[in-house]
Amino acid sequence: MEKRVLLAAIISALFMAWYARLVGKWYPQASPTTQTIPGAAETPAAMSAKPVTTYPLEQEDVLSLESPDLAVEVGASSGMIRGVSLKRFSGQSEGHPLEISTGAALVHLSFAQSPMGWRLIEHSAGRLRFNASDAKGNNYNISYVIDSDNPIINIILEQVSGEQNDITLSSSWTRGDTLDQRKNPLEVSVLSKDSHGKEIHKRYLGHVRQERNVPRGTFLLSLAERYFCQSIRFKTADADVKLIPSSEGSIVAEAVMKSAATTQTITQELSIYFGPRDYFHLKRAGFEQAFPIGTLGQIGLIMLSLLSWIAKLTKSYGIAIILFASLITCAMAPFTLIGFKSMRKMQELKPQIDRIMAQHKGNTTIANREVFALYKQHRISPLSGCLPMLLQMPIFIALFQAISHFVELRGQRFLWIKDLSLPDRLSQLPIALPLLGKDLNLLPIIMAVAMYIQTKLSQGRSGQSTQDPTAKMFSGPMMSVLFGVMFYQFPSGLVLYWLTNSLMSLVWYRLAK
Question: Which CATH fold would you assign to the domain 52-292?
Answer without folding.
Answer: Beta-galactosidase; Chain A, domain 5 (2.70.98)
